Amino acid sequence: MTTPRTAGQGPLTGVRVVELAGIGPGPFAGMLLADLGADVVRVDRPGGAVLSIDPSYDVTNRNKRSVIVDLKAPDGPARVLDLAARADVLIEGNRPGVAERLGVGPEECHARNPRLVYGRMTGWGQQGPLAPRAGHDVAYIALTGALGMIGAPDQPPPVPANLLGDYAGGSLYLVVGVLAALHHARASGVGQVVDAAIVDGVAHLSAMIHGMLAAGGWQDRRGANLLDGGCPYYGTYETADGGHLAVGALEPQFYDEFVDLLGLGDLRDARKDWTRWGELRDAVAARVRTRTRDEWTAVFEGSDACVAPVLSLREAPHHPHLAARGTFTDHAGITQPAPAPRFSATPTAVRTGPARPGAHTREVARDWDIPELVTDPERPSPNTVSQGD
Questions:
Q1: Which in 158, 221, 245, 278 has the greatest CB count within 10 A?
Q2: Residue 238: strand pairing partners
Q3: CA dist list (Å): 25 to 31, 62, 163, 266, 293
Q4: pLDDT, tens digit, for every residue of 18-66?
Q5: Which of 32, 34, 386 is nearest to 196 (CA)?
Q6: Phi-psi region at 9: left, alpha or beta (left = phi > 0; alpha = psi -120 to 50)
């Protein structure tokens, strides 16, 4: 039986989302909802883009539309409330209390739309001693214990970009929470507030590790465990040309294939003997350094040794597997990750490039039936002060 397919709009087609402009996890969450088909209207501040790059390259604003509203203007809050009254979801990433002071907090929004899902994205959360404090990804993951698990024991923990905190512990949990609350709102007619804190999400990601720690199967220090680089057959090694191989040969059959292809079959028994792990690590490191990254990639190609080359951002889209799947796509002159995950009946697509601030004010005013959006000039005055965070 063939499943009917939509025209690439995604499973959230028909869902309306208001995104109050910010940086980091909020825009990424909005992009994910937009990728899934939601009509995401980003409310940008007067004064231009938040990031210091040309907004036409800010991929987190793809598949969205943008209007400009000055929330410090007398009629600014009313315009956002007009949008909230017609939306299913609103997401914001200000410090606790800021949206309330601006007149667009949950109470004001729910007075206009009791079914609204109000998603709040912060690092520390809406309550707690640190709630009013500033912060960034690296501080949030530091406090949860996650950063302390990463890296060599004799070096400071390395910073994993902002993927672990902002996006994994932040954006993805906000989206999960918003979709769950949306399901509840459609069943009950009652909206609610979703408090998505990066510290909560990152802590939640470490659930399995905490179970292992309680069972005595994880040591509370870096580089001493199966999955943190302590194990010589789960980690990275430098190749002859300065590249690297990633090795994840955990299971016995995969490990055996790994050492055999390396030409180190005499070290099969070292897998279970942790007293020989130092010997095994040195032997693997020495052997890997005898060939280039691409030469080793050819050796392990087609095997179940669980070895992969460590690719750069520019190399990744050209890997044969990722190219075959279309994991990356080119749109508006930008190579970027394609929407994920994939759906059999409601496929997704990059429909539009990054939304330029204010570019869709008249369009949204028409589609959402809010003519007041265009009563003020669409281009902000250079003297206009944007709202703070």
A1: 245
A2: 244
A3: 10, 15, 9, 48, 34
A4: 999 999 999 999 999 999 999 999 999 998 656 678 889 999 999 999 9
A5: 32
A6: alpha
First-to-last alpha carbon distance for the chain, in angstroms, is 52
* 329 close to 17: Cβ distance less than 8 angstroms: no
Active-site residue, from 136, 184, 319, 331: 136
Q: How far is CA 323 from the centre of its chain?
A: 21
Best CA proximity match to 191, nearest among 88, 84, 37: 88
Q: Residues 148-187, buried b or exposed e (16+ Cβ, 10 A)?
A: ebbbeeeeebeebebebbbbbbbbbbbbebbbebbeebee
Catalytic, out of 70, 166, 200, 376: 166
pLDDT digits (tens, 9 = 90+) for 61-108: 999 999 999 999 999 999 999 999 999 999 999 999 999 999 999 999
Residue 321 bears catalytic tag: no
Q: Are strands 334-337 and 328-331 parallel, antiparallel or unpaired?
A: antiparallel
**Is 166 an annotated catalytic residue?**
yes
DSSP state of 266: G
